[in-house]
Amino acid sequence: MTQLYILVIQRREDNSINFNRTWDEYENGFGFLSHEFWLGNEKISYITNQRKYQLRMDITTESGCSFFVTYETFRISDSFSHYKLVSTGEYTGTTDPCIEWCPTNKVLNRCKCEGSCADPTCTESCSSTPTCVCPDGFLMDGEDCVPRENCSCFIEEAENGQGVVLADTLETGSNVIGLLHQTVKHIVQRTPTAFDLLQPAGWTGNPFQVMCDVSDGGGWLVFQRRDDSSLSFHRDWNEYREGFGTADGNFWLGNDKLAALTSQGQYELRIDFVSKSGQQTLC
């Protein structure tokens, strides 16, 4: 009967040895064979090119659950090829009883500070046992952990930069942003909503089309509308400067035009939102 020997190439038990090392240190090896260590890429390359070797990993979780996995043929190349992993072969092992699989976008961490799309602020709490948490840059949307930019529309707050959610996601809701000025009332005094050509004082370009609305008694000039996701608002500087879209659909009027308009006098800004459930909000 042939006796099998296991040559240990790495051991990590308590993080007493730092494994965040340079290329040369991983090439030569580091640590202590009786405790935590890495044998070294050069030595492992020399050994695994002598004959066929099997790789085995023994793992014990923080909760004390132990398991191992094996790969049938393990070999790495030499220094000339930068110790490339050449072969691992067939995998065997069972990890399900010990491994907790986190939901999409979540990671294991001892500390938790989960904001939500409804309330991006959070208070950090830590425990001795890692749990699946929504990481930095992500927020909870119901039971899902989603990127912050997928949450909704935010107003930035200078105090903490977190923002306050104003509406549901724009794919299913809508928003309209307008300026209030007395001249707009004169433009659309004949009808509650109208499209007109406008050329502000000092504007050297051609007259541009605007949508004006006095349906509530005010004089609103609409400079942005997003009813759905049919028009991308992920644009470059020049496009936001010139404007894009059409006044009778989704659009941005343009920074140059807004600068010319708001330099004429005092304006009031109004933002109208409609959530995916049909609830209307304005500010």
Would you kindly provide a written description of the structure presented here, covering whatever features stand out?
The protein is 12% helix and 34% strand. It is elongated, with a radius of gyration of 31 Å. Mean pLDDT is 76; it is low at 152-174 and 179-193. It has 3 domains: 10-93, Gamma Fibrinogen, chain A, domain 1 (Gamma Fibrinogen, Chain A, domain 1); 107-167, no CATH class; 174-282, Gamma Fibrinogen, Chain A, domain 1 (Alpha-Beta Complex), CATH 3.90.215. The termini are far apart. The protein has 283 residues and is mainly β.
Question: What topology does this entry show?
Answer:
Elements: E1 10-11, H1 23-28, E2 30-31, E3 37-38, H2 41-48, E4 55-60, E5 66-71, E6 75-76, E7 85-87, E8 91-93, E9 107-112, E10 125-133, E11 138-141, E12 144-147, E13 153-155, E14 164-167, E15 174-180, H3 182-187, E16 193-198, E17 208-213, E18 220-226, H4 237-242, E19 244-245, E20 251-252, H5 255-262, E21 268-274, E22 280-282
Antiparallel strand pairs: 1-3, 2-3, 4-5, 5-8, 6-7, 9-10, 11-12, 13-14, 15-18, 15-21, 16-17, 17-18, 18-20, 19-20, 21-22
Q: What percentage of amino acids are in beta strands?
A: 25-35%
Radius of gyration: 31 Å
In the residues, how many domains can be counted? Answer: 3
CATH architecture title of the largest domain: Alpha-Beta Complex
Q: Name the CATH homologous superfamily of the largest domain.
A: Gamma Fibrinogen, chain A, domain 1
- The helix-strand sequence is EHEEHEEEEEEEEEEEEHEEEHEEHEE
Structural class: mainly beta
Q: Assign an overall shape.
A: elongated
CATH domain class name of the largest domain: Alpha Beta
- The total strand number stands at 22
Number of helices in the DSSP assignment: 5
